[in-house]
Specification:
The protein has 5 helices and 10 strands; from the N terminus they run E-H-E-H-E-E-E-E-E-H-H-E-E-E-H. The protein is α/β, with parallel strands linked by helices and about 210 residues long. It has one domain: Rossmann fold (3-Layer(aba) Sandwich), CATH 3.40.50.2020. The strands form 3 sheets. It has a 6-stranded mixed sheet with strand order 6-5-2-7-8-9, sandwiched between helices. It has a two-stranded parallel sheet with strand order 1-10. Strand 5 and strand 6 form a beta hairpin. The chain is globular.
């Protein structure tokens, strides 16, 4: 039996992220977003509206990088099933990471990985492991031992998801990785507005039929 559908509007997502952003800034202070495509693109852009970094006395936008990973197998429309293997189709463009590129682009930063939902957690665990590989590779290139350990200590990884499904996961998030979810939900079918292939107004109207969670 299929789980009940929970239709979500753009306003639902915007408001959920707005409520969570202050906690992300106070507890993690990200200075780089890594959006997991395609579900993480819109949440990352919304989150950037509420999260700014101050440089030379001016508030500036946090840069967004994208990684392309495929786990779901589309059935057409908004229905999908979970695949068995993560396929890496796009990774970080290190040449565009700005002034901190002298340390490889990742070292010394607070890096927040953004996705729409923590479902099985397979994609998030994969992303964390691959990011840690990149960080370790960049650390190995630092010859000065003290500088290397300083950068190791100041490089932080975090995760933000709009929805965390309260269900058994395929993996665990390392204890040193910060974790933020805007909304915790039961194991329901989340119908995001950017997946709507029909009338978006009808999609929003049908939210009145959402199950009571």
């Amino acid at each position: 039996m299929a789980p009940p559908m929970l239709r979500l509007s753009y306003n639902d997502i915007h408001n959920a992220i707005a409520r969570t952003a202050p906690r992300i800034m106070s507890e993690f202070s990200p200075d780089l977003f890594i959006a997991i495509g395609g579900g993480g693109f819109i949440p990352a852009r919304i989150l950037r509206t509420f999260c700014k970094v101050t440089t030379d006395g001016k508030k500036r936008n946090i840069p967004i990088q994208a990684v392309g990973l495929t786990l779901y197998e589309s059935l057409g429309g908004i229905e999908e099933v979970v695949g068995q293997e993560v396929v890496r189709v796009q990774w970080i463009d290190f040449s565009t990471l700005g002034s901190k590129l002298k340390h490889g682009g990742l070292l010394g930063r607070h890096i927040l990985i953004v996705d729409e939902v923590d479902d099985t957690r397979t994609t998030l665990v994969y992303t964390i492991k691959e990011m840690q590989k990149d960080i370790n590779k960049q650390l190995e290139a630092i010859e000065d031992v003290d500088e290397r350990e300083r950068l190791r200590a100041t490089t932080k990884l975090g995760i933000f998801v709009v929805h965390n499904k309260l269900k058994p996961k395929a993996g665990e998030i390392p204890a040193d990785v910060a974790y933020f979810s805007a909304v915790d939900t039961p194991d329901v079918w989340l119908a995001y507005p950017w997946e709507c292939e029909t009338d978006i107004e009808e999609h929003d109207m049908l939210r009145k039929d959402n199950p009571t969670l």
